[in-house]
Design brief:
four-stranded mixed β-sheet; Deoxyribonuclease I, Chain A; poly(A)-specific ribonuclease; alpha+beta; 17 strands; 10 helices; globular; about 350 residues
């Protein structure tokens, strides 16, 4: 599941004047959001725009009672704040069902820190990319026996590593270059995380494994439409240096530090990702009075995962008949719709033989 829950401080009457104030109230919305999460019962839940206090005092205790554990990080600005201010900073959360997954390690990806480290004194890297304090959060998980309850029974069960990452990319349409750079930095960091994870698993679990054997799910609010450079980069594995989203700003010297560049001046990544949703299934994931479009996504490793089912959109007839011009609404608790995909996973490592684990 991937869901931007619209945190309380952004749910203002100025932004959402079409929604009754009682239905904008967080105490009302949070109950509906939790009911939705419980209704769908996903094994892995990725949330964006979760305030720190709401994670620790509401979502975590409620979901722990349902058999989940979770990790959280606020946006980078929280580091500069007092304790009383920090609790209202929003961030990303990942919950996982403890009967099916164990947490190996969590990773925080801070785009402002990466921008500073790779700026090389470049003005637009320092003035456009670095001030945005968006983050990505990743959890390296391992499956338990219960995760394979629907698998064919022949053969021993495996502890398959899976990297789950959620991100919230910068929102402003005027900063499409920043969105693309943040996404490229994220893919670079995920590659490093996978390399490190494979090395650790080889040494601690005696598994003969490489980074490509660790499956990956990447999701979040990318604030980018399907025809953007961000989505082109993620799905095709490449983006040209002269892509319009770079806004004719020269980022080449920085990008060469965080991405592979081929002879045709295209930057690439090696993940083989597919989007679980297509435009003909989900015409919009964000539905407000001023904007309706697809900006939330779930990507998965297409060579080892197959989507079996998806949660579809709200009925256009229902929206029309009830004259719903935008969300939130008394029956829709965020301006984003939750995304939900059921994925079939093929194990990429084989089960132990004489204490040694191989890989496919």
């Amino acid at each position: 599941m991937c869901y931007n829950v619209l945190c309380d401080k952004y749910a203002t009457r100025q932004m959402y004047s079409y929604c009754p104030s009682w239905a904008l109230n967080w105490d009302y919305r949070k109950k509906g959001i939790l009911e939705e999460i419980r209704h769908y019962g996903a094994d892995i839940i990725n949330l964006q725009e979760v305030e720190m206090e709401q994670f620790y005092n509401f979502f975590l205790p409620e979901l722990k009672a349902d058999g989940y554990d979770g990790i959280f990080s606020p946006k980078s600005r929280a580091k500069t704040m007092t304790e009383s201010e920090r609790k209202y900073v929003d961030g990303c959360a990942i919950f996982y069902r403890t009967s099916k997954f164990t947490l190996v390690k969590e990773h925080l990806v801070e785009f402002n820190q990466l921008a500073m480290a790779n700026a090389d004194g470049l003005d637009h890297m320092l003035n456009r990319v670095m001030p945005r304090d968006n983050i990505g959060l990743a959890a390296l998980l391992k499956t338990t026996e219960a995760a394979w309850e629907n698998a064919p029974s022949e053969g021993p069960l495996v502890q398959q590593p899976v990297l789950v990452c959620t991100a919230h990319i910068h929102w402003d349409p005027e900063f499409c270059d920043v969105k693309l750079i943040q996404t490229m930095m994220l893919s670079y960091e995920l590659r490093a995380i996978l390399d490190e994870a494979a090395q650790t698993l080889r040494s601690t679990d005696n598994i003969n494994i490489d980074a490509s054997s660790i499956q990956m799910v990447l999701c979040g609010d990318f604030n980018s439409l399907p025809d953007s450079g961000v989505i082109e980069f993620l799905t095709s594995g490449r983006v040209s240096l002269d892509h319009k989203d770079f806004k004719d700003l020269s980022y080449k010297q920085c990008l060469e530090k965080i991405s592979s560049c081929d002879k045709s001046n295209e930057f690439t990544h090696s993940f083989k990702l597919a989007s679980a949703y297509s435009e003909d299934i989900m015409p919009y994931t964000n539905y407000t009075f001023d904007f309706k479009g697809i900006i939330d996504y779930i990507f998965y490793s297409k060579s080892t995962m197959t989507p079996l089912g998806l949660l579809g959109p709200l009925s256009p007839d229902w929206l029309r008949d009830n004259k719903i011009v935008g969300c939130p609404h008394p029956h829709v608790f965020s301006d984003h719709f939750p995304l939900l995909v059921e994925l079939e996973m093929v194990p990429t490592i084989t089960a132990p033989v004489n204490g040694i684990i191989g890989h496919r």
